[in-house]
Amino acid sequence: MTYEIPVTQARAELADLINRVVYGGERVVVTRHGKPLVALVSAADLERLESEPEVVEEQVISSVSSFGAAASAAGERGRFGIAAEYRGGDHAEG
Fold it and tell me: Half-sphere exposure of 41 toward its Cβ, with a 13 Å CA cutoff?
C-alpha cells in the first residue's frame, strides 16, 4: 500500500511515517505541490530493488518495445503520410 503526504506534514510526522514503512509494510510518497518528490521504503524493499535492476530495466524496455510496435501498424503509416519504414536487419550500401 502506498501513502502520499505533503512534505510540510511529513516533517512533523517523520517518526510515525518511519513506523508505517518499517512495521506496517507501507510505502510513503512525499509530495510537494501535489507532485511526488521522494519515497520512503523499507530497507528490505530498497535491497530488493537494488539487487534486481536489470530485471526491472528489461521489463520497462519490453513494455516500451511492444508499445512502439503497435503504434507503427501499417494503417498508421498511410494515415500520417509515411512513405518508408525501417525493417532492421543487414543493409547493403550500393
Answer: 10
Q: Which three cell numbers stand for residue 7?
A: 512534505
Residue boundaries of the structural domains of the chain: 2-41, 49-79
pLDDT digit string (tens) for 36-74? 999 999 998 888 888 876 666 666 666 555 544 444 455
Sequence-ordered list of residues with C-beta below 8 angstroms from that of 66, at least 6 positions apart, any chain:
none
Whole-prediction pTM value? Answer: 0.53
Cβ neighbours around 79 below 10 Å, total? 9
Residue 89 is classified by DSSP as S
Residue 87's SS3 state is coil
- 2-41 is classed CATH 3.30.2090.10: no
